[in-house]
Design a protein that fits this description.
The chain is of the alpha+beta class. Helices cover about 20% and strands about 35% of the residues.
Length: about 130
Amino acid sequence: MRFHTRKWVKPEDLNANETLFGGRVLAWIDEEAALYSIIQLESKKIVTKYMSEINFMSTAKQGDIVEIGIEVVKFGKTSLTLNCEVRNKMTHETIVTVDNIIMVNLGANGKPASHGKTKVEYVKDRLANED
């Protein structure tokens, strides 16, 4: 799994227990999944359709650094299915896992549209192909 994003846990990210608020980490996951999908599918019109069971395993405290990892499970005709792991860089523990996140590509009419992608592409390879 590739860990693309790191977040610093700040006071506004905490719950009443003074640990990382679950809703905050889910928002981070949703944003990372959207960014990853936009880059992979080369489309700005991406929406979250589905998130499978969310498994909270540990937490983080103020000042900790967390990493968000995204991995492609499969490419659909109009969708991209991902899985995600968030881990605490300080304690080396997994904070949360999500087995399936389905992101859907939308057309100009706001309906699901084919994206034409079938495999993971890296930006460095796209740039090399343009030369």
